[in-house]
Write a structure and sequence with these properties.
The strands form seven sheets. The chain has a seven-stranded mixed sheet with strand order 3-9-10-16-13-12-11. The protein contains 17 helices and 23 strands. It is α+β, with helices and mostly antiparallel strands and 502 residues long. It has helices at 3-16, 38-57, 74-78, 81-84, 101-127, 133-139, 141-162, 166-175, 219-223, 226-232, 278-294, 341-350, 376-387, 424-435, 449-459, 469-474, 495-501; strands spanning 20-22, 34-36, 62-64, 86-91, 98-100, 192-195, 199-201, 211-213, 239-248, 263-273, 303-307, 317-325, 328-339, 356-358, 363-365, 368-375, 388-392, 398-402, 413-417, 441-443, 463-467, 476-481, 487-491. It binds glycyl-adenosine-5'-phosphate. Residues 217, 219, 249, 251, 260-261, 264, 266, 268, 331-334, 371, 373-375, 377-378 line the site of glycyl-adenosine-5'-phosphate (GAP). Glycyl-adenosine-5'-phosphate (GAP) binds next to β10, β13, β16 and α13.
């Protein structure tokens, strides 16, 4: 199965098992907007909780807020989003399709990288056990040629982006002979800037003064509450403010399922520190955040850092944590050293003083800030796509299983009476009613036990508890483990301790 087929299967599995539905499907959908179904909302809430606890409960100097989506329009002027939150777009005149110019170039680079990977695979076959990948990459003339191409494109691309040189970007697209994937032609328009914010009107009078924006990041809700939180919480620097909430961007290229959406959720934390210490905290949060991902039990090879060449208008250092999605390594989380840019700008635009008096050094200053910003929907996709497996069993049948991290699974247990008579449903209901107070539990009577196991595998339930005829006699049940499919007999009194230990 190639990666495209695998991705299609993941998307249809998400729909079939009630994780994610296209929004407004009854009306043929709405581009890049999605709804979470009954299993999806459980998984999503568990991810939120895992992040929230890790950031707030586990750090005594981080507190939370939940700010409004609508904010004063001046905020987006101050933050730079009105003037600089743009993507360079280009249209193909034949297909009438619109693309991001930077994405076309990045995709072109990815194709050259793919050629290097193919050379590696070929050489591996040729040299067998004696193959040394590092040496091959350093010495193969063909690979070196590809690497040189990538480096040259990268350098030009970065300087054009940094200089906002739109004509230069178009020239590079033409020079690289990039064609439209739909029409196959190189008949391109000029590159133009496109602001990604959604605008709407507040109140009943429609003039420019009441234009407000749907927030494109949750971070600004934190910055404008900095003084409130610092004062009311008597927070001492360094300290952080965390927030989970919706963000909206009018993405030009909206594809790859919940990877790039027009309405999505972010989990952001702004960590305020003394000026001059920001690089120390930047490195701390880089490591801390990667460890958070690894604690889910997903292998390290699936993640990598990617340092930014083009820094956002507010940053003096930035890195992404990239994840290997079915369509390749892509940004999952961004860590930015945002300097004192945001607080200083809000001080300037609001006319209110935003300063911190540091009693340790007897000085007042505008705090510097390190941000960790992760997309909730992207995290969902990372976890979900990594967990999706089609296994061929010993009897030749295939089973689809979601090996989700146990703490994130929509249901921790499913309680299943073997048959729908002889007092088994009553006993199973009793167990369910007892467990539901301490864990998200599921109960089901319908269908054969085999079919019910398969359904629980497909939604990632780690434990199935089966109540059979012996259960009513000896007060024991069978617990089936999702990943190994092994079954163990356990006394009803020991169900909780068994689950904690396995
Ligand atoms: N406050 C900084 C900020 O918003 P960003 O890199 O633009 O930085 C942070 O966004 C994270 O939000 C990304 O790493 C990604 O996980 C998520 N994200 C951004 N745009 C998204 C979109 N259109 N759909 C889904 N997630 C998105």
């Amino acid at each position: 199965m190639n990666t495209e087929e695998l991705f299609k299967k993941i998307v249809s599995h998400a729909k079939e098992y009630g994780f994610i539905f296209p929004s407004s499907e009854l009306y043929d959908g709405l581009g890049a907007v999605y709804d979470y179904g009954p299993n999806g909302v459980e998984l999503k809430n568990n991810i939120k909780q895992y992040w929230w606890r890790a950031m707030t409960q586990m750090h005594e100097n981080i507190v939370g807020v939940d700010s409004a989506i609508f904010m004063h329009p001046k905020i987006w002027k101050a933050s730079g989003h009105v003037d600089a939150f743009n993507d360079p777009l280009i249209d193909n005149k034949d297909s009438k399709k619109r693309y991001r110019a930077d994405v076309l170039i990045e995709d072109h680079i990815a194709k050259i990288e793919e050629k290097i990977n193919k050379e590696v695979v070929k050489a591996k076959k040729r040299f067998g056990d004696n193959f040394n990948e590092e040496q091959f990459l350093a010495t193969s003339e063909r690979v070196k040629g590809y690497q040189k191409q990538i480096e040259e494109i990268h350098q030009r691309f970065a300087s054009l982006m940094n200089a906002n040189d739109l004509a230069g970007l178009k020239a590079l697209i033409e020079e690289l002979e990039i064609v439209c994937p739909i029409s196959g032609t190189r008949n391109w328009t000029d590159v133009r800037q496109f602001n990604l914010m959604f605008a709407t009107k507040m109140g009943s009078v429609s003039d420019d003064s009441d234009t407000i924006y749907l927030r494109p990041e949750t971070a600004q809700g934190i910055f404008v509450n900095y003084l409130n939180v610092q004062k009311t919480g008597r927070m001492k620097i360094p300290f952080g403010i965390a927030q989970i909430g919706k963000a909206f961007r009018n993405e030009i290229v909206a594809r790859q399922f919940v990877f790039r959406m027009r309405e999505f959720e972010q989990m952001e934390m702004e960590f305020f520190c003394r000026p001059g210490t920001e690089m120390e905290w930047f490195n701390y949060w880089k490591e801390e955040r990667l460890n958070w991902h690894l604690a889910l039990g997903i292998p390290k090879e699936k993640y990598r850092y990617h340092d930014h060449e083009k820094l956002a208008h507010y940053a003096n250092a930035a890195t992404d944590i990239e994840f290997e999605f079915p369509f390749g390594f892509k940004e999952l989380e961004g860590i930015h050293s945002r300097t004192d840019f945001d607080l200083k700008r809000h001080q300037e635009f609001s006319g209110k003083k935003i300063q911190y008096f540091d009693s340790e050094i007897n000085e007042s200053y505008t705090p510097y800030c390190v941000e960790t910003s992760i997309g909730l929907d992207r995290t969902f996709l990372a976890v979900f796509s990594h967990a999706f497996k089609e296994e061929v069993l010993e009897d030749g049948q295939t089973r689809t299983v979601l090996n989700l991290p146990k703490q994130l699974a929509p249901y921790k247990v499913s309680v299943l009476p073997l048959v729908n008579k002889d007092g088994l449903p009553e006993m199973a209901k009793g167990i369910f009613n007892d467990l539901k107070f301490s864990m998200r539990s599921h109960y089901e009577e319908k269908d054969t036990i085999g079919k019910r196991y398969r359904r629980q595998d497909a939604i990632g339930t780690p434990y199935c508890i089966t109540v059979d005829n012996d259960s009513v006699k000896d007060n024991s049940v069978t617990i089936r483990l999702r990943d190994s499919m092994q079954q163990e007999r356990v006394s009803v009194d020991n169900i909780r301790s068994f689950i904690t230990q396995h």
